[in-house]
# Entry
Amino acid sequence: MDMTIGFHASSFSVLTPRKPSSSSYTSLSKHRFGLSLSPSPIITTSLKFRPKRNATRCRRPVKCSVSQAAEAATEKKNQLVMRRDIRNIAIIAHVDHGKTTLVDSMLKQAKVFRDNQFVQERIMDSNDLERERGITILSKNTSITFKDTKINIIDTPGHSDFGGEVERILNMVEGVLLVVDSVEGPMPQTRFVLKKALEFGLAVVVVVNKIDRPSARPDFVINSTFELFIELNATDEQCDFQAIYASGIQGKAGLSPDNLGDDLGPLFEAVIRCIPGPRINKDGALQMLATNIEYEEHKGRIAIGRLHAGVLRKGMEVKVCTSEDSCRYARIGELFVYEKFFRVPVESVEAGDICAVCGINDIQIGETIADKLSGKPLPTIKVEEPTVKMSFSINTSPFVGREGKYVTSRNLRDRLYRELERNLAMKVEDGETADTFVVSGRGTLHITILIENMRREGYEFMVGPPKVINKRVDDKLLEPFEIATVEVPEVHMGSVVELLGKRRGQMFDMQGVGSEGTTMLKYKIPTRGLLGLRNAILTASRGTAILNTLFDSYGPWAGDISTRDQGSLVAFEDGTTTSYALCSSQDRGQLFVSPGLEVYKGQIVGIHQRSGDLSLNVCKKKAATNVRSNKEVSVVLDTALDYSLDDCIEYIQEDELVEVTPQSIRMCKNPKFAKKGR
# Structure
């Protein structure tokens, strides 16, 4: 049934339609979302609403989503006590929408640092790899104090490959700040993180960030976000979200895009007002779910989580449970809470606060620290299944052991299984041989970050090409499909559309973005078609396209996909590359190597300009016999291609491997396939 819903300045009412109509209209009050009023009292936009809406309520005062959710809590929750002095929030968003920069400004304005203290940008991105790539990989905790209220803040990754981090963190909080770019609006990862937050029943405050951008369009962003809430089956209370407009880099926020305050005060006040304090059972049996694990040399394993019930004390005897049947006893060594940017030791922690626990050396993520006598385990953390797998094996190249410290299969196995202790979204299985392991993750970037960390720790190994994880249901082969969103200038749109079409992509939406002549294309495409797509799209668009992907669902096998039309140039002998040999070799394609590099037989040294592989001698030296006929000729070489680890993994095919060492990344042909060919 269609109906008309009106948002007014002081009330929210459901109006019975005068007659059935083919479309329903939603009147969004500009006052509610902080936009300037127009001469017309109501602005309408066409939206389809679910038939479940209750049309009997009227004249209900506008409140934050959380206040309604709190009133509709179950009787069991009503027996709990709400702590008014604490707020636990997570900041969630699509990648590059400004989460970490916004946290920087929140920390500075909460006087976490001294006025004369030097603070680097994106201080929450403390990992070297995060700083190099400019993305958040690991979720991190901090806290600030605003008007006698402690706000625990958790910064989460924005990339869909690290969605497992977001799913874990949402167990610790009562509300989220959903950060949305003022130009791009809701993006694929915005949808994913919001869906998870709504499933947990969390309160949501929408922050329209980067409002100072010249092409900002806040009204479009708010309406798009509202439509996304409805599309994800949000309740009426959740749809009644508070909108805050902010500029993270300037440290300003306000209830209207045209009237920002001098600081982030309106944002802090919205957090206090719209996100509830934790509901706790202070006198109940102790319960704390280990949501995150850190490690320090002197303290060992540190379990981080929110205390759900009871009081946790230093030196306390506790029970650690995976399920009701498997429990063991332990003792709390040290206890910490987060104050400002540091962990501060305390003697006891009351329910509702986020704390860090030392002394339990074998604790795992998802286990419950419970009362020794009457404690019961909390539900374990569930994350979505991986969609991509890659094979890891020991290094078998002639250069093995030159740079790495850990080269044996035992070293490799121990490191991979140790990764599972913290990375819940990843899986490791033994491969076909004793020195091969299959690692499954949420995407190629998810596994690439693990590879990069391992090579920096001194490991040497080889990895195979990424493969999708298929399913068979009712004798039908299903493969994962993803939603690919591409922002590309109109002049390059034709070549990008052609490229996505070849990879079995199906376009379902196309719209203009901002005033820069950019078009946003949305495709449903098999995950197989995305392998190696990022470089191809950058080439087709001359480096101007932006690609974002998000797992959608499993669907029927889409058919064969050709991801690479060109073959490889392969060295056919060991030696050192020479300018003389490379000069003649560069006519065959683009080279990866420059003069003076050691290569070995089977190493990939370039991209063939045609299909099929070609073996080359890149170590040939100039004969020194007849001086007059072999006089010195100046050799002009093209600049060698410099492929990163991500580029190499995207490039390789089924019969190729990437050799990863602490100082080098090489590609080679897989010798096992060469034997099969013979």
Q: What stands out?
A: Residues 581 and 618 are 5 Å apart (CA to CA). DSSP finds 17 helices and 43 strands in the chain.
